[in-house]
Amino acid sequence: MNEHVQTATSTPLFDPLSPEFIRNPYPHYERLRATDPIHLTQHGMYLASRHADITVVLRDKRFGKDYPERIKRRYGPDVMKEPVFRNFALTMLQQDPPDHTRLRGLVAKAFTARRVEDMRPQIQRIVDENLDRIIPQGKMDLIEDFAYRLPVTVICDMLGIPMEHREMFYTGARNSGRILEPVPMTPEEIKQSNAGQAMIKMYFDQLFDIRRKNPGDDLTTQLLHAEEAGDKLSNDELYANIILLFGAGHETTVNLIGNGLLALFRNPDQLALLKAKPELITNAIEEFLRYDSSVQMTGRVTLEDIEDLGGKPIPKGESVLCLLGSANHDPSVYPDHPERLDITRPNVKPLSFGGGIHFCLGAQLARIEAEVAINTLLRRIPDLRLDDAENPEWRPTFVLRGLKRLPASW
Predict the structure, then answer these.
(1) Which residue, among 146, 140, 107, has the nearest Cα to 232 in the 3D structure?
(2) CATH classification of 3-409, choosing from 3.10.180.10, 1.10.630.10, 3.10.105.10, 1.10.3720.10?
(3) What pTM did the predictor assign?
């Protein structure tokens, strides 16, 4: 850690689970970019906070995932015996080529631009049916009642989860993101995560049995065929990646919709503009992603010695954490008041979906879900108001940034 900087600021440059940081990380990022843009944390990981450096890390083949070795350095040599880490290591999210290429190839055709765009009428129907149910009540929690139900329904449809099984997914706890945090999990958190994994595995065992007996036109059936082919997908990889698809298929979209709505209601001029010109929604979604990204960080490992990243050498085998939320506010890329929400901002290209070979497969699906959800909500409930836009309750997580609840009425 840069001790001089630490003393000069009197508070840690990076304390991602502090209430102040959770509430608003962007001033902390600004300080990092200005004083120590490649910062070594107390946990021995390098933090990249500038757009240019992060772009290099995401796209350069000298950086990879190397997940098992990275986790062993953090938790000790026996950590991969823990189911939560063992399963996560088998996901495409944590794989390097050639395994990453093989696993992503099995799933990618379900997320082509054509197939995703063809889902727009289905997404519109889900939003309208949900609002039909909610509007007579005169109030709702925009997270649980609105933002959460849409992407969960869509990913359940894609995975072929039967209607009669879905209630447990609508009411399930949203705590899957802790494993992604840069602050190590406690033994109790690891124990709880292992128990959660065991319960999820029990459910998907049942789903696999159903889909083996009654194949459908869904992603689970498709991946089961790949598993039965033997050379494409192992049984353990099947479990790990189906669970990943469910979590990734809704978690970030919930946060995109929630964070976007909060930003709009905190900026009444932008809210009025979008209501007057709903055709701005496509650019507005890009600005929501930039302004308050639902994914704040992603990580890589140096696969060889790096002579210079942002002015610092980084040895082989070191973790480099990319602060995507910081890159999205970097004034070298967004010189016109990056701290402001501007749904007409030109050339918005946020790094919120990552980059390189790990660019988010579901990026376009998330965009369309958020477009339909936000525009339909504003059109159908024109007098919607937030009960407390100034003091919302954030989830106590950093990597997946989102609200616990967002009460609204009309």
Answers:
(1) 107
(2) 1.10.630.10
(3) 0.92
